[in-house]
Amino acid sequence: METDGLANSYDFELNECNLISGNGRKLDVRGILFELNIFEDIYNNVLTGNIMLSDSNNIINKLPLAGYETISISFTKPSHKLTYKKTYRIYKMSDRAKESDTNENYILYFCGEHMFKSEMFSKSYSGKKISDMVNDIAVKRLGAVVKTVEPTAGIYDIIIPYLSPLKAINWLSRRAVSPLSAGSTYLFFENFDGFNFSSLETLVQKGPVRKLHATVKKIGEPLEAPKAKPSLAQEQSDGGENYKFSNSFDILNLMSNGYAGSTLLTINPLTQVIEETVLEANSFFDTTKHLNKVNPHSSTFNGPSISPRSVQLVELSTKDCDKITYGPGPKPNDIEKWFLQRPMFLGGLNMQRLSLTVPGSMEYKAGAVVEFTAPEVSLNDAPVKKSEDVLNSGNYLITAVRHIMKRDSHVCVIELVKDSLKKKPE
Fold first, then answer.
1. How many Å apart are CA 51 and CA 39, to the nearest integer?
2. Fewer Cβ close by (within 10 Å): the C or N end of the chain?
């Protein structure tokens, strides 16, 4: 397999890593770099990161470093024929420690320029989709180019209540409803591709970018000497090095957050009519999109059922009265379509969480899907070919990626979640 000069799948080329002062002075810090981290997260609006430097040139005073600098980063994975390049704003320094009379270490934190655009504003939108409002704010207030803008359902009259651009977008995202299902799961986030305004239901329907396999040593099997780093060909076939389930299930937590069943009470202040909206988990699962086919909490598992009325998240809200005051037309809220649906979907999606370490790749992006297969854990006398772990295998959504780059290696730590099962356990 052609490797384009790479010895193994951990290799990468750091083309540029420059600190740039406010007066334009540029300093290449690749020679003193200890570790570079870049973070993608679907629950974070912009990319962030940090860089650990081992400094023997008094950069802090010579550049100087005062929180007004930028850092320009460019790296390439030749095997993927992709180059990433972006300039970030430095906003913080920490862990400054003197190692010797001639050397000190410290960490610089950086984020996308859009985090600094925090000017508050109010604006009225009339007869618009929420997706159009989000795109308008992103372009005109943030100066961002949104790669993906997924259309939302409904036409609304909304006033942005004096918020910063990112807070306004997040405020609108919570109220956005999908035109294709009963879900309300829109997020505004940045990954290596750019900015995205997309629903989780659309993300989970994408095909896997990679098929990852994990191996589990049999109990009592003697330890082996560490193996060499895998080749690029091995990376394609073997996938992850190690994995850890940080959370598998927590039914009590799901119940307390309204996953089993929630009730919303709305009041129309003009007619003084109280309406009740009940949302039940199994019926909601059937009307929304998921990573896999099988509902992990359906009655088909023959376990003790949870009544949707036994645990309730009861909220009180003012019902829209627009149609009474002004007649038929755009409604400014539709709270019964998103207030309960959003936390129920997010609670189910984050029920099972997996952390996986893999050789560095720009294919692993926040919002992408991977297929993960784990074998069953067994004793020494188990067959060599293990059965698939049904509960833990299947499609997972990448919610966060940490790209860890050192002088000689690029590793990704990816956080995966899933809300459903590939197939029903036997």
1. 12
2. C
